[in-house]
Amino acid sequence: MAFGLPANRRAARAPAPGRWIGIIEGYRVLVTVMRLTIIDRDQSVSFVAPGHGSKVLTAACSQRPADLAGLLDAAESYDADLIRYVRDGLATFDEHNTPDRYDAIHARLSADPPARTPPFRVVDDVTRAASVQPAGAGLILYNLPAQRIVQVQNSYSTILRRDRGRIRTSGRPTRRLYRYELPGDWSLVP
Fold this sequence. Notes:
There is one protein chain. Strands 1, 2, 3, 4, 5, 6 and 9 form a seven-stranded mixed beta sheet that branches. A two-stranded antiparallel ribbon has the order 7-8. The chain has helices at about 55-60, 70-75, 80-95, 105-110, 125-130; strands at about 20-25, 25-40, 45-50, 120, 140-145, 150-155, 160-170, 170-180, 185-190. The protein has about 190 residues and is of the alpha+beta class. The relative contact order is 0.20. The protein contains five helices and nine strands, in the order βββααααβαβββββ. Residues about 1-15 have low confidence and may be disordered.
């Protein structure tokens, strides 16, 4: 699945609030989305992703990642396309924004609704405010140093300490399942 807007933006009708236009094998589909924000010791990043991304990141947390890179590496085996979208988005952020000059991301955050914002690094008050603004079905914070997952707002699917999900390939769920259980020292709020 290619995440984001279709190539011909004008041809697509605006999706309902909390929905995202994605492409699966050439067909436009609507996907429920939510904002996911990851905090590690050195940085924070935020992005809007399909709702199943919350379970993917939670499963990755069960592997005790030390930082953002470790979390993304762990999550890649569950949904490689989602993780590629996040990494590519952060690379684009780095190309268009420089320290003390964040005009590009500020313009995107002010022009686009939350469900349409690209992945970004939290670098100032503007990006910090956007990183805690729910999109679509909600907002979930993954605080790696505190080993805490905070479901600020979640109308998609409650995150459980122990669960399973479908491995995705090319944006589509497969028959293969992954299972996870958060370690006892991780807290899940609420």
